[in-house]
Amino acid sequence: MQTMAIQIQDDYVNDFMSYVNNHNDSITITKDKNLEYDPYFYERKKKLHQIRNDVQNGKMRLLTQEESDAEIELFFQELENN
Fold first, then answer.
1. Contact 35, 41 (CB under 8 A)
2. Which of 4, 7, 62, 73 has its CA 20 to 30 A from that of 35?
3. How far lies 11's CA from each of 14, 16, 17, 30, 67, in Å?
């Protein structure tokens, strides 16, 4: 069995559902809760895992809260000066 994500044009949903109902012995439809809450869930998940791996491998530095606050403050000061 294979799992796929599909996108269906709004005006084709009824035809598609008729097809699925006629082939229900071969096709099962389930809703993915993650995609209901966030249509980009899996893309974001992949990116976050990559960031985590980069931090763990030393490719990216993870800032402390204080360092992050200082960087943001510096950024806003630079915006105000320009």
1. yes
2. 62
3. 7, 10, 12, 20, 51
Contacts of 61 (CB under 8 A, 6+ apart): 55
Element (H, E) at 7: none
Number of residues written out for the chain: 82
**Start-to-end CA span in the chain (Å):** 58
- Dihedral through CA 31, CA 40, CA 10, CA 26, nearest 10? -40
SS (H, E, C) the chain: CCCCCCCCCHHHHHHHHHHHHHCCCCCCCCCCHHHHHCCCHHHHHHHHHHHHHHHHHCCCCCCCHHHHHHHHHHHHHHHHHC
What confidence tens digit (pLDDT) does each residue in 23-54 have? 988 998 888 888 888 989 999 999 999 999 99
Measured CA to CA, the distance from residue 69 to residue 45 in angstroms comes to 25
